[in-house]
Amino acid sequence: MRARQLEVFCALMRAGTVTGAAATLNISQPALSQILLHAEDQLGFKLFNRVKRRLVPTEEALELYPEAERIFGELAALRRRTADMRRGRTGLLRIAASAPPAMALIPGALADFRASHPDVVVRSQIAPMRHIVDMLRDGDIALGIVMNDKPHHGIDVEKIGESHLACLVPAEHPLASRASIGFADLAAYPLIAYRPEVLPGLLLSAIADAENLEYAPAIEIDVSISALPFVQSGLGIAIVDSLLPWGLFSGVRIVPFVPKTALPVAILTRTSHPISGAAKLMREKVCLAWAGYSAGAG
Known about the structure:
alpha/beta, two-stranded antiparallel ribbon, about 20% strand, globular
């Protein structure tokens, strides 16, 4: 299967229709159908059956798809890299972080890094952990900084420290002056907190169970920063990570949550690929930024 055929196959598997796949690839529907026919002729078997104006993958297509996506991701990464080289950007470091470390650690680490490597272009992204893991596997980034030390196949996980859960409270709220806040204090107010499927939500659900309480946020979040406008609008009190620099935002106060609940901070790299000298230096700078943050928080 040629590269263009692979691209069409993956687009069709994702979209489920010729119309959707053609729009994604910015080509005409007849052109896409022709590429698909050529691919099926070369393979010697059908990849899709038409059922009620939709394309239904055959068993062969379903078996091929995971490997096809992996190869397509590697080809896409290769195209991006060659484009960078064509533009003379061989000194390029790609990193990604979840929002709290991206806002609390990366600015200081990047300032130190660029002081000694001003000619290296740094491409920094904010993304959830699952996307960061995928980007590492596809070779799109060299380092990931996340709030989770869960193991992943093919990924090295280096825990550098722990943040803790805290409550984000409207500045004029009666609980804003408290030294700490627990579930019992929150019973009378709408709760804004993590959905149970993510690590902080799992931890909070376990705490609620231990206190014979139900963990049932009125507003569920995936990432802590999304709680900010809800709290500022008076929609409730949020349980969030304490790493994000909440002091930068108006109208809110951060209060420790009890019992004290740790959230790991970790650096992710690919097991199978040694990282570059620039990536190693950036990792060191992130660790130093964490050390500075920990000293200030302590």
